[in-house]
Amino acid sequence: MGWVQKQGIRRSLSSGVVDAIRVQIDDGYFAIGDKLPTEAALIARFGHSRTVIREALAELRADGLVESRQGSGVYVTGLSQVDTIAGLFTGETDRISDIIEELELRIGIEVEAAGLAASRSSPAQEAEIHSQVERFGALVASSMPTDEADFAFHVAVASATNNARFRTFLEHVGRRMIPRVKFRKVMGGLDPLPSRDESIWEEHRSIADAIAARDPELARDAMRKHLVTGIKRYRALAARRPKDI
């Protein structure tokens, strides 16, 4: 067996160890501050060589999940970065301050996405963005739920950046990045804010028009206005619910 092939097999084995330990950390079997089993114990558990186990621990250290303490052992220092990022949006909350913070974070990502979409989008991608605007409008006219169409519009803009990481980010956090979806869930299906579908539709249309006009700054401004308007809505609601701030 050649050296390259051996390296590939060893890497595959170490990845299996990494995945197993990562799952245990994420599930709370190992909490932050806990000491991992010794190398000898991990070798016995997984049935792999010392080299494989050391490569797995090195990868976990590189990911910031564990740290080695000289003369003491290997300790858990953090949770999975992917799960932590997802939790920024997917955790249930009825705290208006949480939703405002999420919208502020989205400004940093989606404003730039709109600008890039205006610079890079293809005709087909522009058509998809406008299609989602029209879909949203049709739902508004029929008094139908717009949550899914709202999310689909933002995904269409992210896709039009032609940087797959924007779309991946939105798809990873999912539809519950739309604040009314999350807030309504913990409020037993009730939405504390009056219907704002008409204004959201108009805001989406402004973003789509700026992207079609190939005006990156106008697109950024339109997306910023859209998200800042959402912040203002929830700040107004927070003023009526001071206990949640």
What does this structure look like?
This protein has 245 residues and is mainly alpha-helical. It has two domains: 3-78, Winged helix-like DNA-binding domain superfamily/Winged helix DNA-binding domain (Arc Repressor Mutant, subunit A); 83-244, Four Helix Bundle (Hemerythrin (Met), subunit A) (Up-down Bundle). It has helices at 3-26, 39-46, 50-62, 81-90, 96-120, 123-141, 147-159, 164-173, 179-186, 197-212, 216-240; strands spanning 66-69, 73-76. Helix 6 packs antiparallel against helix 7 (147-159). The protein is elongated and about 65 Å long.
Structural descriptors:
single chain, 245 residues, mainly alpha, Arc Repressor Mutant, subunit A, Four Helix Bundle (Hemerythrin (Met), subunit A), 2 domains, two-stranded antiparallel ribbon, 2 strands, 3% strand, elongated, disordered N terminus
